[in-house]
């Protein structure tokens, strides 16, 4: 394994109009780390990931992925990255075979090889029987599995995942959680953004909490736990983001529902 960071972010700032979303983020991610990237809704997690993927421009600061300054617009580093977006635009009118071989082709994988690998991964994830059905007919979890496969076909070095377990059944969740650990053992780096705290707690070797445009905590779960009073990541999250009134908020909402 190399010791150079695979992701190096220095003083990253990003605004949409007058709204400053990222207020100076610095982060070094090393090969083989599984980063749990967490934060409240709207904190800027997806924005960070989209910048790292070269999908969002207009930021300031420096961002290097796999040694490449992404501001240079190079595409080589993108070939070594896999991405499972939060809201996916799957081509519903295609079958998984058509979709996955098409995606693989974009990565320069020869169609027959891609087809073999896609079928194998569909089989391992228990969805081989719908390989030739239109994606439009799939359940949410089946679509999620196709997305996961599409991010892995080209054997990427870094995997960016935004709520990757969304819609997956309990057995599939266990498989994917274990898969992430196995991929990290192979030396792949995983950048995992999710709101499901008990999963983040279990799969991440390091947790980065984004709050108010800045990194509010960065460390292993044990290190984060040592910082506060709470013992669960959910509790630590509430503590670090200064949120204590979930019960009152829920009561007020329930009351508002009854109002005329
Ligand atoms: N294209 C855009 N134009 C304007 N504002 C945007 C755009 N994309 C994101 N934002 C704003 O930036 C902020 C951060 O959004 P982002 O999607 O990065 O948050 P997030 O941490 O991923 O949230 P969530 O947990 O809800 O997915 C939000 O206030 C959002 O409204």
From TrEMBL:
Keyword check for DNA damage: no
UniProt xrefs under SMART domains: AAA
Keyword field: ATP-binding, Nucleotide-binding
GO molecular function, one term: ATP binding
Start and end residues of each ABC transporter domain: 7-237
InterPro entries to which the protein is assigned, alphabetical: AAA+_ATPase (IPR003593), ABC_transporter-like_ATP-bd (IPR003439), ABC_transporter-like_CS (IPR017871), P-loop_NTPase (IPR027417)
Gene3D superfamilies referenced in this protein's UniProt entry, alphabetically: P-loop containing nucleotide triphosphate hydrolases
Signal peptide: none
Protein name as it appears in the record: Transporter
High-level lineage: Bacteria, Bacillati, Bacillota, Bacilli, Bacillales
